Amino acid sequence: MNAAPPAARRPVVTGLGFITPIGNDRASVAAALREGRHGLAPVEFFANPALPVKLVGTVKDFDVSSTSCRDWTWPARYDIPRETLRGLAPHGVFAFCAVEQALAEAGLAASDVANLPDTGLFCASAGSARQLHFNLGQMDAARGERGNPMGVVSSICGTLNFNLGAHFHINGAVCGFVSACASSSHALGYACDEIRLGRLRRVIVVGAEEHNAETILPFAAMRALSAQSEPALASCPFDAARNGFVGAGGAVALIIEAADLAQERGAPILAEVAGWGQSADGHSMAMSHPEGAGLRLAMQRALADAGVVPAEIDYVNAHATSTPVGDRAEALALRAVFTEAGAHPRVSSTKGLTGHPLSMAGAMEAAFCTLALAEGFIPGNVHLRTPDQVCEGLDLPRETLPVAPSLVLNNSSGFGGSNVCHVLRRWAE
Known about the structure:
The chain is of the alpha/beta class. The chain has helices at 26-35, 82-85, 90-105, 110-113, 129-141, 159-167, 183-196, 213-216, 218-221, 231-234, 259-265, 293-306, 324-337, 351-354, 361-375, and strands at 11-19, 40-42, 55-57, 119-124, 173-177, 202-209, 250-258, 271-280, 315-317, 346-348, 407-414, 418-425.
């Protein structure tokens, strides 16, 4: 193993914020992961029972279904100023609340991150298709003579960057990432690089998505979504009978800091991001490389960057979304990296519980990995009944294990063959 870099260059996680299908705070999310409690709920888009989409990973205790922010509701513990609210997309509300949670856990007030040249904000979302559709419809109806003055900043894919950066007065850097389902993993990876290079000392990383018809339903036309109405049959990564993913929404935020800064503040250090790697398939605009070649390379690069070998990894949080092609490719990549090297980490996909929240998946699952390291458990594959034969040689626990991992790997893959992997380590001085 490589010698650890100086504390000033070691990126660590000091705060987590969760607005997810399985819970809206750390305690409820950890309990759901331990107990195997899913957050999928029945849905009927456009009041049309003929549609094939029957389930979505929903966010509870929020109502952002209206196209007018005046109608939105959220838990009373969060105070969103009206001026900020006007520019937010629906998923921006989720993100705002997740950031406030993460800052609080890290022992930071909003004033502690404002107007500092060494604090950044890296975000990922696909924007708000619903708000964009509504705003353009208004413009079309008015023949271009009227439009929502906040229409652009509340709907395009940079909406989180614009609004959160302005509200929290971020000076160091504000950046958005768009690589489909690998987006927030890219945000996390580049945030760690900024800290390792000494350019920033703290980065707030956020991933958020909506779970309305405009965001989820277009994937049905690609035949990517499950048509099942039973959660255990609809979202079952690595299962031989899997038939597509279940869409989901929410937001997750992570506070990433240089270890010495966290130590100086007396902040809780939940985990270290020991390394990361990325690659591209160069194969298809939508489907993974059939042999998982790109993901294999990204895993190998992440391990090398962290200075560890396959046998040292205790747990892999797989990207596996429950699609036939994607899960197969990842299983083959995992076998090539681990099984063929005689390594047998536990492997699970927590999307059996959450569904697939698109661009926020990487940040969400990195946060799940952080919980596993900090609280000492390994999530299981709760909806796995009969593993696909392609998974032969992989250790796929059905239930959550009371085992404390020391090193974990988190995988993400997105359209266009983007692959991103992170190695997270239990914190040690």
